[in-house]
Amino acid sequence: MPSSFPRVAVLVGSLRAGSVNRRLARALAALAADRLAFAFVEIGDLPLYNDDLWTDAGGPAPVERFKAQVAAADAVLLVTPEYNRAVPGLLGNALDWGSRPQGKSSWAGKAAACIGASPGAIGTAAAQVHLKAQMVTLGMIVMGHPEFYLSFKPEDFGPDGTVVNDQTAAFMNAYADAFARHVARLSSGK
Ligand SMILES: Cc1cc2nc3c(=O)[nH]c(=O)nc-3n(C[C@H](O)[C@H](O)[C@H](O)COP(=O)(O)O)c2cc1C
C-alpha cells in the first residue's frame, strides 16, 4: 500500500559499495519511516552534463527518469560526502541536470535539506557550506537548522544498518522530526 507520509527523494553523492553516506541515509530512512517515505533516486547513471544532449524530445533517458522521480517527491534530501572540502562531482552533476531546461527546474520551491558523513572530524561541514549556498540559488526551500554533520564511527551502526549509538539515534530522530515539520509547513503553505 502506498505510504501517506510525505515523499522524500534521497540523492546520495557516492557510488562506493561501502559508502558511509549511503549507510547513514539508509539508517535515517529506517528511523524516520513512521513520518517520511524516503525514495532513493539513482544518480550514478546520469551522463556528465552536456547541453548538447537535450533534444526536442527531452534529455537522455536516465535524466528524464531522474527528473520524473524528483518531481514526484514532496521534498529532497541531499546526502553528501566531502571531497576536497567541497561537494563530489557526482552530486553536482545531478544538481545541474535537475536545473535544466531553463524554466523547468526540478528544484524550484522544493522543500530540501542536506546531511553528510565523513570519517574526519568536521563531518562534511565544509562541503555543506558550498552545497547549501547552491541549494538556495537553485530555489530550494532549505532547512537551515538543525545542521547535520556526522563524524562517522563504524561502531555506531549495526550490521543491519540501524544506529546503535543512543546519542546519534536521538539526534537523527530529532532531525527527522524537524525535517518532517519543515516539509509539512511548506505543504500547508504556512
Ligand atoms: C577525492 C576525495 C577527497 C576527499 N576529501 C575529503 C575532505 O575534504 N574532507 C573529508 O572529511 N574527507 C575527505 N575525503 C574522505 C571521505 O570523507 C571518505 O572517503 C568518505 O568515506 C567518502 O564518503 P562515502 O563513504 O560515502 O563514499 C575525501 C575522499 C576522496 C575520495
TrEMBL record:
Recorded GO MF terms: FMN binding; oxidoreductase activity
Residues covered by the NADPH-dependent FMN reductase-like domain: 6-153
Listed Pfam families: FMN_red
GO cellular component, one term: cytosol
Taxonomy, superkingdom: Bacteria
Coiled-coil boundaries: none
Name by which UniProt lists this protein: NADPH-dependent FMN reductase
